[in-house]
Specification:
By secondary structure, the protein is an alpha+beta fold. 24% of the residues lie in helices and 28% in strands. It has one domain (4-159): Gcn5-related N-acetyltransferase (GNAT) (Aminopeptidase, 3-Layer(aba) Sandwich).
Length: 160
């Protein structure tokens, strides 16, 4: 599958919102405390900008959005970023696209000068957790102070 990774643009907003919400529902990430309920999901392109040391990237094939993922400062930290809202449509899973997307995000984080990358997720997202482990993320016993997603039950971090 020939997919490309591009920075988000406003014309991606509706498609990625739909993917984030449907995948969130598929894995039980519904309501307050979960990323799909964050207000930014409605207009992702307005919330990520490299001048703020953040970026959100879309995976697309033949103009069709397959998913996305991003990096943003974690709780205002200069050294720690957060891997945010990595969601892929069901048709894009198991093809190596998630690995490419997360690797792209982590490279962006290094370029922005971050030293660590934090994430939170759900145990039901076992495929994503396995990918994060392969990319160097280690499990944490508890969330970092300042996490916005108190509904998550898996917390991980990697050194960049």
């Amino acid at each position: 599958m020939q997919a490309r990774i591009v920075p988000i643009d406003s014309h991606h907003d509706q498609a990625i919102c739909q993917i984030i919400k449907s995948v969130g529902a598929e894995f039980g990430a519904i309501g307050d405390g979960f990323g799909p309920s964050d207000a930014e999901v409605l207009n992702m392109s307005q919330h990520y900008c490299a001048t703020k040391r953040s970026g959100y990237f879309i995976v697309e094939q033949n103009g069709i959005v397959l998913g996305g993922g991003g990096i943003a400062p974690f709780a205002g930290s200069a050294e720690c970023c957060e891997l945010r809202k990595v969601f892929l449509s069901s048709t894009a899973r198991g093809l190596g696209i998630g690995r490419q997307l997360v690797a792209h995000c982590l490279q962006f984080a290094r370029e922005m000068g971050y030293q660590q990358c934090y994430l939170d997720t759900l145990h039901t997202m076992s495929g994503a957790i396995a990918l994060y482990e392969k990319l160097g993320f280690e499990h944490l016993p508890a969330p970092h102070a300042g996490t916005e997603h108190n509904g998550c039950d898996v917390w991980m971090e990697c050194q960049l």
